[in-house]
Amino acid sequence: MKLQEDLKHTDRLLQLTKEFSSKFLSSLDRLAADKTVDIPVKQSMPAEGVGGVAALELFRQQYGNAITAAAGPRYWGFVTGGVTPAALMGDWLAATMDLNSSDKGSAAFAIETETIALLKQLFGLPDAFLGCFVTGATMANFTGLALGRQWLGQQRGIDIGKQGMAGLQDLQVVSCVPHSSVTKSMAMLGLGRDNVVKIPALPGRESVDIDALRTYLESRKGQPVIYVASAGTVNTVDFDDIAAIVELKKQYPFWLHVDAAFGGFAACSDHYRHLLNGWEQADSITIDAHKWLNVPYDAAMIFSRHPGLQVEVFQNAGAAYLGDPAENFNFINHIPENSRRLRALPAWFSLMAYGKDGYRHIVEENVALAQQLGDLLEKHPAFRLLAPVRMCVVCFTLNVQADEQEEVVNRFLQALNATGVVCMTRTVYAGQPGIRAALVNWRTTANDVQLAYQTMKEVVATVLNLHKYA
């Protein structure tokens, strides 16, 4: 039986896997940052199996040429970190040990508890926050909104966790520039995508107009709502004035959830920490680990000041073998998932290996490089910044006539990504088609910025010339 044969040769299988992994990592600078590949599904389920060695070779043959450097220094699409060497060590061990983080009888429980404590120190969050690992920012936002929903029910005398939402009406989630995962979470929670209320931003910004928010809250006449504050928007890394929003909480009833998926890492730097002033008074906070923490997918954290509400929403009621959640703390009574991979271990390794200074350097270096790219684009006549480079995202477009902008931007971005040198993503900002480059990878250097910029100049010259004679 192949399984028993593989058991006898586990060391060899691990060595082959290590060699494949090492070769991949050593080639990150040469691999295409991104490419579109049509991979036909050719394999059928084998009756007997081929064993680990042959499976690795099949993988190499079918998918090897399609693997891109999404963890590389010039993948600037979405907001994607790389994997630090120490995080890779932790991830390998997490898979090897296959521990359930929700098992209080294993080391996994202590590892997650300690890692959350380390993260609160990194971010400067008070001990009053309970932190838990979830799969990503979407599930962290889902959890924060679920707690807000439970709080809204409480204000109206309804325990939604027990009674459901039948007795609730007019539930609103308020925000200025919410991430798409917020409205997705609203759909999953039965709050409904259409029930998001968008408050105007300050002129030329993605930061909420506090006066407009105050006017809205006054119009609600004391009716409780959920407010989702942005701590780092995906287009321009803009921040709501959290301290001012906290002041409004003293006058009006609302649940404050801060979406700080990657903007929360501003806390790592003395230069940018002020952007988060007041967030320690939030009710819940989302921070994504597989972004600027540079650990593998999938990992994020939800921090909350209301563990009692979490139990009301997520407790495993009726599971006697799990014990009383009021007497015996367990992560499974505070988040959506029960059985969970040891997501904390890669973070623990990376935090211990590089410390506060290491993450301060990553954040400040990425910001400096993004500003360098922004300066280069601003000086080139073919490009135009759509917003100032506030932190790690450069949002720009091409200098063409408005009625041609969408077509030319699409053509340029497609051609740029096709080079494999760098990858960026399309966006729309202030009604204009644009492009965004997000630099949150620890590997990125000034040489990468220069290489990307040189490629951008060559591509834009070709695209504009073709467009001129089209």
From TrEMBL:
InterPro entries: Aromatic_deC, PyrdxlP-dep_de-COase, PyrdxlP-dep_Trfase, PyrdxlP-dep_Trfase_major, PyrdxlP-dep_Trfase_small, Pyridoxal-P_BS. Belongs to the group II decarboxylase family. Coiled coil: none annotated. The modification N6-(pyridoxal phosphate)lysine is found at K291. The keyword Lyase applies. This is Aspartate aminotransferase family protein. Pfam families: Pyridoxal_deC. One of its GO terms (biological process) is carboxylic acid metabolic process. Keywords: Aminotransferase, Decarboxylase, Lyase, Pyridoxal phosphate, Transferase. The keyword Transferase applies. Its cofactor is pyridoxal 5'-phosphate. GO terms for molecular function: carboxy-lyase activity; pyridoxal phosphate binding; transaminase activity. It comes from Chitinophaga fulva.
